[in-house]
């Protein structure tokens, strides 16, 4: 099976449109899954949710989705400065005021994780487990510098064995590592990359017979249209510049 994994769209409809068009143009993807954080920081939360619902893209809840759905006190985002904390609250309050009742209901119904088996549940074979942050919490950042023992702990929590794949997002930085035969895949971000590359990111995963194959893909999109929409919505200029620079200016998530 060939899967497309998309994560951290963060209400950026132009980026999502570009990624879905890119996946469609490939013509070789059997299923698309999203790994959460559909909303926040950009002005199209309802449009993003409607697109995914219309396309039948299944997925899981990110921290932004579950906190908005439950009216939590904050978004569960990590801030490294006072200004980042301010920006995170601005985004969160804007998003909570913008989402419709239908969007909020959809976000609240998203599962915490998904367990996907290419050969079906009636036969043994590799598993693909989708989470947003880690198998324990959607707010924990699974960064590339985590030691192998952390990877082993997360694999144990998810019950993974050699040949299986744990896919996640949340950090907005793509990477792939193999520990004890288990693949750990950060999909990066569709709508708010943080690795200095403004292009939308997603993963193509081949899983079935043989070793899992992971390909990180970057897609150009109309980032200026997205930035202009951010400003027009009354959101901070820092959010627009974040999109233009791939996260090199005033990171807030």
UniProtKB/TrEMBL annotation:
<dbReference type="GO" id="GO:0005737">
    <property type="term" value="C:cytoplasm"/>
</dbReference>
<dbReference type="Pfam" id="PF12850">
    <property type="entry name" value="Metallophos_2"/>
</dbReference>
<dbReference type="InterPro" id="IPR050126">
    <property type="entry name" value="Ap4A_hydrolase"/>
</dbReference>
<dbReference type="InterPro" id="IPR011152">
    <property type="entry name" value="Pesterase_MJ0912"/>
</dbReference>
<dbReference type="GO" id="GO:0016791">
    <property type="term" value="F:phosphatase activity"/>
</dbReference>
<dbReference type="InterPro" id="IPR029052">
    <property type="entry name" value="Metallo-depent_PP-like"/>
</dbReference>
<dbReference type="InterPro" id="IPR024654">
    <property type="entry name" value="Calcineurin-like_PHP_lpxH"/>
</dbReference>
<comment type="similarity">
    <text>Belongs to the metallophosphoesterase superfamily. YfcE family.</text>
</comment>
<feature type="domain" description="Calcineurin-like phosphoesterase">
    <location>
        <begin position="1"/>
        <end position="208"/>
    </location>
</feature>
<protein>
    <recommendedName>
        <fullName>Calcineurin-like phosphoesterase domain-containing protein</fullName>
    </recommendedName>
</protein>
């Amino acid at each position: 099976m060939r899967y497309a994994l998309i994560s951290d769209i963060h209400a950026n409809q132009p980026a999502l449109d570009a990624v879905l068009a890119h996946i469609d143009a490939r013509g070789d993807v059997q299923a698309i899954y999203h790994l959460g954080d559909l909303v926040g920081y950009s002005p199209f939360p309802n449009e993003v949710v409607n697109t995914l619902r219309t396309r039948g893209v299944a997925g899981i809840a990110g921290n932004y989705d579950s906190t908005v759905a439950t009216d939590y006190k904050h978004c569960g985002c990590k801030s490294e400065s006072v200004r980042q904390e301010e920006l995170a609250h601005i985004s969160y309050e804007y998003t909570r005021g913008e989402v419709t009742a239908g969007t909020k209901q959809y976000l609240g119904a998203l599962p915490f994780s998904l367990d996907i088996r290419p050969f079906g549940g009636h036969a043994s074979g590799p598993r693909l487990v989708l989470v947003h942050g880690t198998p324990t919490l959607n707010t924990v950042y699974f960064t590339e510098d985590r030691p192998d023992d952390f990877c082993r702990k997360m694999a144990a929590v998810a019950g993974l064995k050699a040949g299986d794949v744990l896919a996640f997002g949340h950090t907005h930085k793509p990477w792939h590592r193999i520990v004890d035969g288990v693949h750990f895949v950060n999909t990066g971000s569709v709508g708010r990359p943080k690795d200095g590359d403004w292009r939308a990111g997603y993963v193509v995963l081949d899983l079935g017979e043989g070793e899992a194959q992971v390909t990180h893909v970057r897609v150009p999109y109309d980032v200026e249209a997205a930035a202009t929409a951010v400003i027009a919505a009354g959101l901070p200029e820092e959010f627009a510049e974040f999109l233009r620079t791939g996260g090199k200016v005033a990171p807030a998530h």
